[in-house]
Write a structure and sequence with these properties.
The protein has about 475 residues and is of the alpha+beta class. It has 14 helices and 14 strands. The strands form four sheets. It has a five-stranded mixed sheet with strand order 5-8-13-10-11. The protein has a five-stranded antiparallel sheet with strand order 6-7-14-9-12. The chain has a two-stranded parallel ribbon with strand order 1-4. Helix 6 crosses helix 8 and helix 8 crosses helix 10.
Length: about 475
């Protein structure tokens, strides 16, 4: 941090080494048992929201110059120094909540995190002794370089182990196209899975360190600014109109509530319908339409890197599988494989692609990656792969995002492991190690490129790095196949 900007957190600087220590990890069972003994903390009572004016969450450059900045540093430092992981006053509590309850690659990814940020923001105010403190957001579409204040080892905003600081490679414009009119995952042309695919997941991957592991990513202070921006983009998507719509407030979609640990009151799903219900707004709720991020994406769309062909053993079509291959290693170079389809498989693909979008689920056709693992060289992050389906061999006929079915990096692997661990319950922590299975919906992409020939499918793994890539293989895939839902 530059000289003259240290006032207000000098006491935290003496303990800067403590900020670099990893938060104490506790198991899901221990976390639930310990917090159950605490009284509920009604941090932001719903019945008082209407009686208060809305707080405004600003961008980081604006916030950095505000009078709230010293209070923010003071609150972050105090919470990170508190090692009682069962108390909401500690940073580790919120890491454990995220690792226990967060729904990544599932419905309510956006809504759950909106409530999570609101509850955390309320605790920041308590730690700072400031009722006006808000969470700022990092608009990486405006400036994709990690703010310098988070790179200063003497600051409570610093965390050791990050690999990258340039996230320009994550800046997809796909979620903001007018064709994405639905919100929830599982629907055709849905915003939620698109914005989670990119920019959300790649930002985690490119920063690396704790950020590329879903179970511990909130340890990094940049996590909170990243998710505030994702929340802002959701708000911007709603406000953009043009046919975009949320599920009706009377829909059963909004029934129930979200859990943030026994020490903090839950949030009714309907409350997350709009930021104003939780007492805040953003200083800018417009979709990205230009500037640095858009230019970087346009340049990437115009010229792809060289893609080498990989040879893998064909797998027989059986059960729901329409064809696949076995054995693939992903390294610093972009790779393309051909997925052979049976005659019945080709007919099935054409039948699903030519149906009206409303007649099929977004997961009616999907690519399954099985036995996905991260090598020792790939564990620190700083990279990811864009998975592009049926790229034309002679050059791009449409923008790159037309062919994007998903992203793959250490963060996506950790999400798949985390989902398996949560499903297993007690003893599920063992699932956080070892190979994972990842599914990617493909119907929307194939519908966009139709009527291009679909007799064969090719899947390209386009490597994106935050800096200079390592020469070694980063990830391995035991098997992958193309699958039609029953």
């Amino acid at each position: 941090m530059r000289a003259g900007n240290t006032k207000g957190y000098g006491r935290q600087r003496a303990g800067s080494q403590a900020f670099e220590m990893e938060d104490a990890m506790i198991t899901r069972r221990q976390f639930l048992q310990a917090t159950a003994a605490l009284a509920l903390v009604p941090m932001l009572p719903h019945d008082t929201i209407g009686a208060t004016s809305l707080h405004t969450r600003p961008s980081w450059p604006t916030f950095r110059k505000s009078t709230s900045y010293p209070a923010f540093l003071r609150a972050v430092g105090a919470m990170r120094a508190n090692k009682n992981s069962t108390s909401p006053a500690s940073w580790a509590y919120w890491t454990s909540v995220h690792g226990t309850f967060c729904p990544h690659h599932k419905p309510y990814f956006l809504a759950w995190h909106r409530g999570f940020l609101a509850r955390f923001e309320a605790q920041l105010r308590k730690a700072a002794g400031s009722s006006s403190l808000v969470l700022p957001y990092w608009d990486y579409y405006y400036d994709p370089i990690l703010p310098t204040e988070f790179q200063d080892p003497s600051s409570p905003l610093y965390l050791a182990g990050r690999t990258g600081k340039d996230v320009s490679g994550a800046l997809s414009m796909t979620p903001f196209g007018n064709s994405l009119i639905n919100l929830p995952r599982g629907y055709p042309y849905a915003f939620e899975p698109a914005v989670e695919t990119a920019p959300h997941n790649p930002v985690h991957n490119l920063i690396g360190g704790a950020m590329d592991n879903v179970a511990i990513s909130p340890r990094d202070p940049i996590f909170w600014l990243h998710h505030a921006n994702i929340d802002r983009l959701w708000d911007a998507w709603v406000r953009a109109g043009a046919g975009r719509h949320m599920p009706s407030k009377t829909s059963s979609y909004w029934s129930g509530s979200f859990n943030y640990g026994a020490a903090v009151s839950g949030v009714a799903r309907l409350t997350t319908y709009a930021p104003s219900n939780l007492g805040y707004r953003y200083d800018n709720s417009t979709l990205p339409t230009g500037g640095y991020g858009y230019g970087m994406q346009a340049a990437a769309s115009a010229q792809l890197p060289a893609i080498q062909d990989a040879f893998a053993q064909p797998l027989p079509a059986q059960g729901p599988s329409l064809g696949g291959v076995g054995g693939l290693a992903l390294g610093p170079r972009s790779t393309r494989i051909r997925i052979p389809l049976s005659a019945d498989g080709r007919d099935r693909v054409r039948s699903l692609v030519t149906r009206a979008p409303q007649a099929t689920s977004g997961s009616a056709l999907q690519i399954v990656l099985d036995g996905v693992d991260v090598t020792g060289a790939g564990t620190r992050g700083g990279y990811f792969y864009k998975l592009l389906l049926n790229l034309p061999s002679g050059g791009l006929a449409q923008p790159e995002q037309t062919y994007l079915v998903g992203t793959l990096g250490p963060f996506e692997v950790s999400v798949a492991r985390h989902a398996k661990a949560m499903a297993m319950g007690a003893g599920g922590h063992m699932a956080m190690q070892g190979p994972a299975r990842i599914t990617l919906p493909a119907l929307d992409v194939l519908s966009r490129i139709w009527p291009a020939p679909l007799d064969a499918l090719t899947l390209s793994f386009v490597r994106v790095d935050a800096g200079r890539p390592q020469a070694a293989d980063a990830m391995t895939i035991e098997r992958l196949w193309f699958e039609a839902a029953a």
